Amino acid sequence: VNAAVFTAIKGFEGFVPSPKPDPIKLPTVGYGHKCVKVNCTEVPYPFPLSEANATLLLQSDIATRVPCINQHIVSGVVLNDYQVSALTSFMFNAGCARFMNSTLFTRLNNGEDPNTVAAQEMPKFNKACVNGTLVVLSGLVARRAQEVSLFQTNSSVLWHSWV
């Protein structure tokens, strides 16, 4: 991934120095770190987080998303660093399982034009469950639009260059 993914995720998530619920009531801290333990005790930094420590936490979180791309996008699919960054941002938000079970994933692996696939498939992931109801969130609509734009950024730096 390149630096664009950090800028994008920081912009989407905002800086939260102490644990607080996100729009769907999941406790988050830093730049979108979803806590897995009560009071986010898995976070190795003291609260309130400094922006520097929040960035370190984000780097760690991103490092856990990239393997999903490496392990599940088939060889022969050529993506540039911006496309991988956009997919990483997408998975940071939606998760690897949702990506792997999506038509976005299937169409990329089927060899369709990646830019077309991203433009058609990423915007579909604009909903979240709020109070038991699946609703379109304006923040997700904006996020997906920016992820598509990032995905469609030209670059000669290739990620999957097995062809």
From TrEMBL:
Protein name: Glycoside hydrolase family 24 protein
CDD domains referenced in this protein's UniProt entry, alphabetically: lyz_endolysin_autolysin
Keywords: Antimicrobial, Bacteriolytic enzyme, Host cytoplasm, Hydrolase
Entry keyword annotation includes Signal: no
Gene Ontology biological process terms, A to Z: cell wall macromolecule catabolic process; defense response to bacterium; killing of cells of another organism; peptidoglycan catabolic process
InterPro entries reported in the protein's UniProt record: Bacteriophage_GH24, Endolysin_autolysin, Glyco_hydro_24, Lysozyme-like_dom_sf, Lysozyme_dom_sf
Keyword field contains Transcription regulation: no
Recorded GO MF terms: lysozyme activity
Alphabetized Pfam families for the sequence: Phage_lysozyme
Origin organism lineage: Eukaryota, Fungi, Dikarya, Basidiomycota, Agaricomycotina
Organism of provenance: Mycena pura
